[in-house]
Amino acid sequence: MALAILLPFSARAEVVDKVVAIVNQEPITLYDVDRLMAQNVDEIKKAAATGDQKEKFQDFRSMALQKLIGEKLLDQELERRKIVITDADMQKSVEGIMKRNNLTDAQFKSELGKQGMTWEQYTVTLKAQLKKVKFMSEVLAPRVKVTDADLDEFFAKHPEQFAPYQSVKMAQIIIPVDSAASDSDLQAAQKRAEEISAKAKGGSNFEDLGKKTPNPQTAIPEIYQVNQLAPAIIEVLGDLQPGGVSQPVRSSMGIHVVKLYERKTLAGEEYKQVREQLREKVFEEKMGDEMDKYLDELKGKSYVEVKS
Fold first, then answer.
1. What beta strand segments (E) does 30-121 contain?
2. What average pLDDT does the structure give for the chain?
3. Can you count the helices (H) and strands (E) in the chain?
4. Number of other residues whose CB lies within 10 A of the CB of residue 86
């Protein structure tokens, strides 16, 4: 067990059978909790360097226990509702997974083997997942309503998720740097870019500054689709307000100084094109909230005892 390195030897035996919670007469053991916590072992190790290991360990253990209580309540509810997954349901799901990943039956089973999972183990896990999906579709989905106001609110809160559909009016001055440039040449280009950035921020005309470089046309404002820009440029744009000038930023083309004139957000036909994608994201978010509410309802109607 991955977390064994965090526990003294005398404590390892007790995790196998020590009951830490009872959910409607079904136990959750310390072993169950620590097995789920294993995915956080790296963060707990890092916390040891700052003296916060004990606190982190307890935080993750508490979160793992609450997650297991929720899963146990949901499993019991699925059993009570007698939700059934047929062989046809299983076959359809497996065929869909193989098709999306372009795998044959033999290749799929080979991939499972590489992950240390047998076909029998996989089918058990898949059936449990499909039961939950069916429950959410039949019971929770009817509770979730996504309005136009919800879509507008989501977009306003998460504009970065729709950056590929956005455009900006910007200009950039590029100081070319050859891929085989020496350190001294690179330092000279960096210094030149820093001088341009400082002058532009000080009020000098950006286009005039660009005329003195090898690529004067790039200093002229143009409309760019955000998803067509280099990642480094996209990142620096995120920190700029209209009228702002960036610090020098490196790309495969050289060293850039960017000035943002206008940030164009989704509107009109563009907004309509991504509306269904937006609706799906909002629906998933609301489904998560609805699941949390449903589990709280189950807790209120169930016997849940957390032991010290």
1. none
2. 85
3. 13, 7
4. 10
Strands (E), the chain: 19-23, 26-29, 167-176, 222-225, 249-251, 254-264, 304-306
Distance CA 156, CA 302 (A): 39
Tokens of 120: 């029998």
More confident position, 225 or 246: 246
For the chain, how many structural domains are there in total?
3
Quote the pTM value: 0.59
* Residue ranges with strand state E in 192-278: 222-225, 249-251, 254-264
Question: Among 33, 90, 89, 95, which residue's Cα sits nearest to residue 64?
Answer: 33
Return the DSSP state at 205: -
C-alpha 232/C-alpha 247 separation (Å) is: 12
Q: Looking at residues 43-58, what average pLDDT do you find?
A: 70
**CATH number (domain holding residue 208):** 3.10.50.40
Q: Which is it for the CA torsion 264, 267, 269, 274, positive or negative?
A: positive
Measured distance CA(25)–CA(288) in Å, rounded: 27
Nearest-Å Rg of the Cα atoms of the chain is 28
- State residue 133's pLDDT score: 94
The residues facing 285 across adjacent strands are: none
Question: Do residue 139 and residue 96 come from a single domain?
Answer: yes
Domain limits for position 216: 167-264
- pLDDT reading at 274 higher than 80: no
